[in-house]
Amino acid sequence: MEITFEKVTHSYDVNSPVANLGLDDVSLKIQDKKFTAIVGQTGSGKSTLVRHINALLKPTSGTITVGKRVITPETNNKNLKPLRKDVGMVFQFPESQLFEETVEKDIMFGPMNFGATQEEAKAAAEEMIKLVGMDTDYLQKSPFDLSGGQMRRVAIAGVLASRPETIILDEPTAGLDPVGRREIMDLFKGLNEDGRTIILITHNMDDVADYADEMAVMNHGKLVGSGKPFDVFNNQTLLDNDWLTLPKSAQFAQDLAKKGFAFSKLPITVTQLASEIKQQVR
Amino acid sequence: MENIISIKNLNYTYPEAKTQAIKDVSLDIKKNQWVSIVGKNGSGKSTLTKLVDGLIEADSGSIEIDGQALSEESIWDIRSKIGIIFQNPDHQFVGATVEDDVAFGLENQGMPKEQMVKEVDHALELVKMADFKNRDPQSLSGGQKQRVAIAGVLATRPQIIIMDESTSMLDPEGRQTVLDLVQDLRAKQDLTILSITHDISETELSQRIVVLNAGRIVEDSDPATIYNLGADLTHFGLEEPFSSELMSQLRGSLELPTGYLNEEELMDKLWKLRSKK
ABC transporter domain: which residues (chain B) (predicted)? Predict the structure, then answer.
């Protein structure tokens, strides 16, 4: 499903004299079946933006189109279930939302809520626990006996169990160790290759460079840049204004340039950086 | 320098667990050191710090803090010397204002009001949060919340601060302010820092890295020596340092030394190679 924001503004205090704009006139197209990263400093409007996609928040003005559905300031809360089934959202620290007595029941909750039968939900739980890299033995355990990383996986399995076409991830790897982070990111990449649209909010620019097809940069509620990561990280205006930090490889290239190396464009991955260096040294 | 923490042949198994969480761990930590404790999830890092703070009792072995053996009699004395900053900034607040929150630990110690106000102001000064003292802690950013949590710990004048992944839930800016603060505090005061972390850039700030694996200490050295492990660091819950990842991609084509170089050293080396061309 293609997602389009058209002149979307979201004001948090409509009635206050100083309107607090969470989103300020944002127009953005998020392409179907692509892996799109949303970046920006804390408070820049990233989370506010994605919460409009499944109508957890509604615009103060403007429209959001998700596939064939249109969300406007007038959209009412009835009939949002199909939208929320299609657009799955993994919040920050999703493990804090686990509540059932077994892992299986927790994963089954979503599908049952969207009308699946007991058997279908059970089958989904078994499939999803494997998909997130855990053994089916865990299904009968209490989610609260698991480690932090395992709880995170169970929470993600719960969102996946409703088989959303679009998956929104709000910093899904925060607080995980590097191996856990890599595994979770690879899982999302796999889901993307299987045809799901992935929208990832992150502070980790290396993950953006390594995994995303497209990216959008937010600052003070405004969209200040968007496009392919290679082009966006080479956009001087964004860097000069401190709206964007660089992946490690690009930072390293910048420092090498100070010593006398020359890069016509900043490399954004280690592989790109290494091949540039080889050409310049040999 | 004298040892502030001295651990000898420590063993611990959780009730009903099949494997030992801590196996024969001995560790001496000198005053004013910043020590990183690293290891995969489940390697025993948090168990070790719980043992040090007396939250759980070892099956065998001994722990001495500041020359005092940890026992049922000494536990409160020892706990007053240790402050812990936890991972989730939202789970550490009890007060309605920043000021109340920092005062909480002192109130527990029964400090007179007048002195308490002074101590709280001083602690908030140290973490550069004095302007926020009347704010609701929930209105602060993650980095600000952790700084207030640190002020709460500092107010009780501990000798040891244990950071239990305390920057892992923060954004890059918040993480930097907290790390700058800890570094500054260690320089100014006689604090010993024990930091459990998965963040390689955080370990660079420490003098020593202790690696735990399956409850045992498997490596214990200065950061440069530990970083020599390169890609193997991922087995211990750390990321490979960027310079080492880049070097392994360059090695086939360029003549580079085998050991670890930090980013600055690698840049110099690359520049020399380029100049010779």
Answer: 5-239
Name the one residue in this structure whose structure tokens are 């999830």.
Answer: B41
Q: Does A248 sit within 8 Å of B41, measured CB to CB?
A: no
Output the DSSP codes for B13-56.
--TT-SS-SEEEEEEEEETT-EEEEE--TTSSHHHHHHHHTTSS
How does pLDDT run across A53-101, given as a tens digit for each residue?
A: 999 999 999 999 999 999 999 998 888 888 998 999 998 878 878 888 9
For residue A33, what are its two tokens?
């079946």
Beta strands B22-30; B60-65: pairing state: unpaired
Q: Compute the C-alpha angle B160/B179/B245, nearest 5°.
A: 115
Q: Tell me the nearest-neighbour CA distance from A271 into chain B, angstroms.
A: 7
Nearest 5°: phi and psi at B168?
Answer: -70, -20
CA distance A172 to chain B (A): 11
Residue with tokens 């007396």: B54
Q: Where in chain A is the domain with CATH 3.40.50.300?
A: 3-242
pTM, 2 dp: 0.86
- Residues A180-236: pLDDT tens digits? 888 899 999 999 999 999 999 999 999 999 999 999 999 999 999 999 999 999 999
Tally of CB atoms within 10 A around B76: 9
Catalytic member of B99, B119, B165, B202 = B165
- CATH fold, domain A3-242, is Rossmann fold (3.40.50)
Write out pLDDT tens, residues A136-168.
999 999 988 887 778 889 999 999 999 999 999
Angle ∠(B204,B205,B207) on CA atoms, nearest 5: 90
Contact B172 A245 (CB under 8 A): yes
Distances (CA, A) of B21 to A63, A64, B49, B215, B233: 55, 52, 12, 5, 21
| A residues 192-211 closer than 8 Å to B (CB) | 203
Domains and CATH numbers, chain B: 3-239 (3.40.50.300), 241-277 (no CATH)
Cα separation of B126 and B129, whole Å? 8
**Whole-number percent of chain A with pLDDT over 90:** 74
Burial of residue A60 (CB within 10 Å: 0-12, 13-18, 19+) is: middle
In this prediction, residues A251-279 reach a mean pLDDT of 95
Position A16 scores a pLDDT of 65
Give the whole-angstrom CA distance, residue A184 versus residue A189.
Answer: 9
d(C-alpha B132, C-alpha B148), whole Å: 9
What ipTM was reported for this prediction?
0.84
Contact across the interface for A149 and B41, Cβ inside 8 Å: yes
In which residue are the tokens 């929470």 written? A155
Chain A positions touching B270 (Cβ under 8 A) are 256, 261, 277, 281
**Out of A176, A261, A277, closest to residue B250 by CB:** A277
Name all contacts of B13-20 with Cβ < 8 Å and 24+ positions apart. B13/B59, B14/B47, B19/B214, B19/B215, B20/B215
